[in-house]
């Protein structure tokens, strides 16, 4: 799935949000995070992402591509992705979700009240 040092990403997230609703979609993102974490460190590390990349259909990713993905999402500079960083990265990878993220946020907040 990698070509010319780029990972091809098909954006299924808008369809998932439509089917699951905002709350259901966020739960699925959290489940995805837990599939990829290092069990001891409770974050996604280079090693855990490399080991579990096949779960995302990305088994052909090079070490450089995995590092780029981590760096893209690593907002606090610790070299790993916590749950919030992972979810933020997933939203950023989905242009359609970015457009409607305010609506999703409001729906999720309304669901908690």
Structure report:
There is one protein chain. The protein has 113 residues and is mainly alpha-helical. The chain contains 5 helices and 2 strands. Strands 1-2 form a two-stranded antiparallel ribbon. The protein is globular and about 40 Å long.
Biggest pleated-sheet summary: 2 strands, antiparallel
Radius of gyration: 14 Å
Strand order of the largest sheet: 1-2
Strand content: under 5%
- Strand tally is 2
Structural class: mainly alpha
Shape: globular
**Secondary-structure element order, N to C:** EEHHHHH
Mean of residue pLDDT? 81
Distance between the termini: 41 Å
What share of residues is helical?
55-70%
Instruction: Give the count of helical stretches.
Output: 5
List the quaternary state of the chains: single chain
Main attributes?
two-stranded antiparallel sheet, 4% strand, 113 residues
């Amino acid at each position: 799935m990698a070509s010319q040092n780029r990972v091809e990403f098909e954006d299924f997230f808008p369809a998932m949000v439509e089917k699951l609703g905002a709350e259901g979609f966020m739960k699925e993102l959290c489940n995805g995070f837990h599939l990829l974490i290092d069990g001891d460190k409770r974050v996604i590390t280079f090693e855990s992402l490399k080991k579990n990349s096949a779960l995302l259909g990305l088994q052909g990713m090079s070490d450089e591509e995995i590092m780029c993905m981590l760096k893209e999402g690593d907002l606090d500079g610790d070299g790993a992705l916590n749950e919030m960083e992972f979810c933020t990265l997933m939203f950023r990878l989905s242009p359609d979700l970015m457009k409607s993220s305010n609506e999703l946020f409001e729906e999720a907040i309304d669901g908690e009240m």
